[in-house]
Amino acid sequence: LPGSAVAIRAEDFLIGFTTVVLAIHLLLTKKFKLPPLSYQILVYLAIGGLSVLSAIFITRNVNPLLAIFHWSRRLEYLLVFFFVYSVGRENWGSRRLLFELILLVPIGVFVYGLAQIFSAAPVISTMNKEFAKGIALTLQPGVQLSSTFAGHYDLALYLAMILAYLATLLTFKLKRGHWFGLLTGFVVLLWLFTQAGSRIAIFGLVFSLGLVCFLRRKFKLALLLTALVGASILTSPSLMLRLGNLLRVFRAQLQSAVTVTTAYAAESAASLQVLAEQSLRPIQEDRSTSIRFDVEWPRALRSLYKNPFLGTGYSSISLATDNEYLRALGETGLLGFFAFISILIALARGLWQRYKGAQGNLDQAITLGALGVYSVFLISALFLDVFEASKIATLFWAFTGLAFSTKS
Question: Could you give the angle at which helices 92-119 and 64-88 cross, rounded to 10 degrees?
Fold first, then answer.
């Protein structure tokens, strides 16, 4: 697409075709029931549209076609929620089929991950504009494992979502062979997860595992799964190195704060200036963290300052902000931010109600797994643009749509 590093993909046509089919189906049957989340989604899209109009006609700081594209792709991802919700509402068998597909796909993901590592299978990355042109690459030593037509954190977050579902199944009473089979699958995918090298996904994964086990009162299982995560991290030298870099950055930030406080206490302006300069965090310490702290996050806050109510419009703060909440503030202002938060609140409430009212093990597993997925996204959104990453955003709305289709 002109002015963007994003390419039109096969799934865009698939979602468009499905929209037409669903619309015809609803017109003929007139049986569709809107999920409780619909009101919040409509308000969010309406405010986003107003922000785009404001950016085009008032502040005039965006490419109109690009801003409309950014708005429309959010609509595209949200449509998947309604697709899966409408299918899952049909009957128990439909929900079971969709849930089985969730668990089958990771087998192919694992096989292709092995092929990338050991057989030089090609990957087309979208981590920068040059790679996104469609260059087929092979994995080099020391480079994180990456999703094809996405990035390494897309793969990590996808696997974190699947691991949350596997942890959910492990909390149920199963035959010994089935339980150990699921645990083996958990370990295998966990190893693949660490090869992707995403640090923030680790925190989301650990929290989701703790949440799932806590709600099922499986505390020993929580300790086991957390220990497995820790052991798996130790097997990845690159991930250990990146975690060490992150720790050094925050340690430097803490030391800087202590140094400045001490200097103020001494009431010496000259001393303060010298000590502050000495404690500045070198940008070379951790590039991804520095980009967030020094470039992307301040840029989002400046956009909020320019237009507090509607922001400066979609696409106005570049393709990435690496914080979903600051991105909502910068692009759509306070109105858009609160509309976005209202969706997250309604999601949490709806998932919890359906988990508490679930009838049968299948619906319990679907809703509890979705709560785990939700927690992964909520934490990852602090450091990643998870709701704009097409591969994982589409799957997130699919998984939550399936959970909302269960009986509350």
Answer: 130
- CA 380 to CA 389: how far, in whole Å? 12
Tokens of 385: 């643009």
The rounded distance, in Å, linking the Cα atoms of 109 and 106 is: 5
pLDDT of residue 277: 46
Do residues 145 and 113 touch, judged by C-beta distance below 8 A?
yes
Nearest to 144 by CA among 157, 132, 135, 133: 157
SS3 158: helix
pLDDT of residue 280: 47
Break the chain down into helix, strand, coil percent, rounded to 5: 75, 0, 25
pLDDT tens-digit profile of 7-66?
788 899 999 999 999 999 888 988 777 888 999 999 999 999 999 999 999 989 999 999
DSSP codes, 44-63: HHHHHHHHHHHIIIII--S-
Q: Which one-letter amino acid corresponds to residue 218?
A: K
200 contacts 380 by C-beta, under 8 angstroms: yes
Contact between residue 392 and residue 330 where contact means Cβ atoms under 8 Å apart: no
Using an 8 Å Cβ cutoff, are 406 and 354 in contact?
yes
Name the amino acid, one letter, at 129: K
**C-beta separation of 35 from 81 below 8 A:** yes
Average pLDDT, the chain: 88
| Nearest Cα to Cα of residue 272 among 252, 257, 290 | 257
pLDDT at 241: 74
Nearest to 14 by CA among 394, 403, 388: 394
Judged against a pLDDT cut of 50, whether residue 279 lies above it is answered with no
Distance CA 11, CA 31 (A): 26
pLDDT (tens digit, 9 = 90+) per residue, 317-336? 987 899 999 999 999 999 99
